[in-house]
Amino acid sequence: MTELTTQKEKKPVIFSGMQPSGALTLGSFTGALKNWVELQDEYDCFYCIVDLHAITTRQDPADLRRRCLEQIAQYIACGLDPAKNTLFLQSHVAAHSELAWILNCYTMFGELSRMTQFKDKSARNVDNINAGLFTYPTLMAADILLYQADLVPVGEDQRQHVELCRDIALRFNGTHGDVFTVPSAFIPKTTEGARVMSLIDPTRKMSKSEPTGGCVYLLDKPEIILKSFKRAVTDSDGEIRYDVKEKPGVSNLMSIYSVTTGRTFEQIESEFAGQGYGAFKEAVGESVVETFRPIREKAEALMQDKTYLTQVYTDAANHAARVADRTLKKVQKKMGFVAK
Ligand code: TRP
User: Fold this and answer.
1) Of 8, 10, 119, 208, catalytic
2) pTM of structure
3) DSSP character for 151?
């Protein structure tokens, strides 16, 4: 962390977060982690495990604790260097909760009511539509604004939340002067493969709620990964060709193979010309196994080294808190709270 705190030149700030609500998937890797790694040299990156957001749906405490630690280990195993990035847990920095409350008072009921994620999640959790689920975006705004982030790398599904964060920042700045940097969503050009679809129903996004075999996890053992790819749904015309509309299953497998091998669609088409789906699916499975193998091995080793992991998230939380508290102090002063 010393490099971070002594670093002279000011790099643009990046903030992003991922919920520890399930194990990391192939989608988390291609859609987020792989891109995060590419940003670590040019930006001052804060990558947060948003455990406070995760409790908007019920979590088993022991599972939550284990997943948070596993997630940090996997961030590092994927190539995020803890000396270059601030890899921390949201609940370790009290300023997130404190600023979130203040921002609740600068966010309109109507704005929160229009969030599509709230509408989707409340439709899916009818027996637990808690206030946290509703105010989820104000906590997310606090995450971003505390670090004066310039860019927020997220998937398309989070664009609306980042837009709301901008609106809140502009509203606050409009009333109190320039306190917050107004951030922008940083959505990777839809590099093929950024959006991985279910292996069972390739018209649906690959998600943690998939039935077994539909979703591939970063820590899955090779046999499991190979089996899921062997069973992946394709179609009946036997041709390996990219066409999302007509051939969603084959196209999804091509995207995955493209991400794991760096090959273009044309190269993949000619590589497998005249071969059946069997050989193709096996090759895709193998490529994922080989991409994940070093990550899984490193993550497993890190999970055994609790002292190191604790050091990483503690140092990161200390650094994050210093940055966040600076912003929070400014805000509290603007509000008229008496300084202690
Ligand atoms: N809401 C994001 C998601 O579910 C996670 C998140 C929380 C986040 N806070 C953030 C993402 C701040 C970017 C910036 O994917």
Assistant:
1) 208
2) 0.93
3) E
